[in-house]
Specification:
The chain has 444 residues and is an alpha+beta fold. 21% of the residues lie in helices and 38% in strands. α1 packs across α2 and α3 packs parallel to α4. It comes from Desulfurobacterium atlanticum.
Length: 444
């Protein structure tokens, strides 16, 4: 299918109908995924997705429609639906992006994508499972080992004659293992997601999953106490992901942000800086334009503890009297662009994880957390289940499970005393491990 030709037809139809403002967003993607268990292929998927989204503005009223049917009739009907939806909406201040030159200077696509054989992909998933078993005799079961990939092409055109297209690729591995020692058993999971096939590392993914499971064998709760806590890199990345809704313009507009009316104020420790960076080569959220055609750029969200920017699309920027930041993100062809993140990057500090652990005399290192996304997005209150390692003077005292940490995110951010340098990506969030001065840990 030639998506460019379909978009040209949509543009011609829209112009013939004298629609003052419009934009067209289209994607086509395909990929492959395989799950392996006990050296056998359990599941294979070969998804293909395509679609066209059309937004029109008529007399200040916005209408939206999308279609998975990219035939002439499918697009014509989508345009009619968008017009009808506009007629039934209320007037508002809607704008369409203007042309701008992107500053991204690297490819988002792996030129070798089509050269990787089906057999090689299955072989990688099997090797991932085999490696996990070989690393430690206490690994008794691999729940699943999987490989997946995708290639996506994005197209955009609007009534300001602003158009672009770009292609992205993604590869990922994941594995879940079960380790046993006597009557005790623990689960361990790990993953990797990269843009280039050559950067996949199945040995690393297997070893991290095995370590996550075996380190917790014999784990038990500690006594309820206030204690310094280290959120390991992936756990703090999950926490930042949960907090990210508070940085978004549409939530600020609806007064559903923890940080409403806090722009320019200190909201965290001076050691914490976070950027939204769509121009980093390692980021799975990198892109030259956002999904409504605004050129993307790196911008500080928190800089040395101070809230510097909200992330806004064109609409929320106008309502908040801010400039668009290139963060109009669609969560699929069926959704309108709203403010969202590209890549959130917690700026690393000076200490590696071993140095971070030795900073306080005693510390709980949290390696896994459950319920992070139950944090109240307005009050900031939280209570989450955790497991990890109790460390004293740099040595492991005991593995820990069955505990909770509770408090308020506002205080937690203020109580960050050190940020590590062991950055790792969790999807489109990059974070190092972070030391919190003190946190209430509920246990025995």
């Amino acid at each position: 299918m030639n998506m460019l030709k379909e978009i040209e037809k949509a543009v011609n139809l829209l112009k013939k109908q004298n629609i003052e403002k419009f934009d067209i967003f289209a994607t086509i993607s395909h990929g492959f995924s395989v799950e392996v268990k006990d050296k056998k292929v359990e599941k294979i998927k070969v998804p293909l997705k395509k679609g066209v989204a059309i937004r029109v503005i008529i007399d200040g009223k916005m209408g939206f429609a999308y279609t998975r049917d990219t035939s002439d009739d499918g697009i014509r009907i989508a345009i009619e639906c968008a017009r009808d939806n506009a007629s039934g909406s209320d007037p508002d201040e809607y704008e369409i992006s203007m042309p701008a030159k992107p500053s991204i200077e690297f490819s988002l696509s792996d030129e070798n994508f089509k050269n990787i054989s089906l057999e090689r992909k299955i072989e990688i998933a099997k090797a991932l499972e085999e490696k996990a078993y070989s690393l430690d005799s206490r690994v008794k079961k691999v729940r699943k080992a999987s490989y997946s990939d995708s290639i996506t092409k994005v197209f955009y055109y609007n009534s300001n004659d602003h158009s672009f297209s770009y292609e992205t690729t993604a590869y990922s591995l994941s594995i879940m293992v079960k380790a046993e020692d006597g009557s005790d058993s623990q689960m361990g999971w790990d993953f990797d997601a990269v843009r280039k096939f050559s950067n996949l590392n199945s040995d690393l993914v297997a070893s991290r999953a095995v370590e996550n499971a075996t380190l917790l064998l014999g784990a038990k709760p500690i006594k309820t106490q206030k204690i310094p806590v280290i959120f390991k890199n992936t756990v703090f990345a999950e926490l930042i992901d949960a907090l990210s809704a508070g940085f978004l313009g549409n939530n600020v507009l609806r007064k559903k942000s923890l940080f409403t009316n806090r722009l320019g104020f200190e909201i965290a420790s001076h050691v914490l800086s976070i950027h939204d960076n769509p121009l980093t080569e390692d980021g799975m959220g990198s892109r030259p334009y956002d999904d409504e055609g605004t050129v993307t750029r790196k911008k500080a969200i928190i800089e040395r503890g101070v809230l510097k920017n909200f992330l806004v699309d064109i609409y929320s920027a106008r309502k908040l009297n801010l400039s668009p930041t290139g963060n109009g993100i669609r969560h699929g062809i069926e959704s309108l662009p709203q403010s969202g993140i590209t890549n959130l990057v917690v700026e690393p500090g000076a200490l590696n994880l071993e140095q971070l652990i030795r900073t306080p005399e005693e510390v709980l290192v949290i390696t896994d957390a459950m319920g992070i996304h139950t944090i109240n997005p307005i009050s900031g209150e939280f209570s989450i289940g955790v497991s990890g390692l109790l460390i004293k003077e740099g040595n492991i005292v005991q593995p820990v499970t069955g505990c909770t940490v509770a408090g308020n995110v506002k205080k937690l951010l203020q109580n960050i005393s050190e940020v590590g340098r062991d950055s790792r990506w969790l999807g489109n969030i990059s974070s190092p491990s972070v030391l919190i001065k003190e946190l209430m840990v509920g246990g025995e």
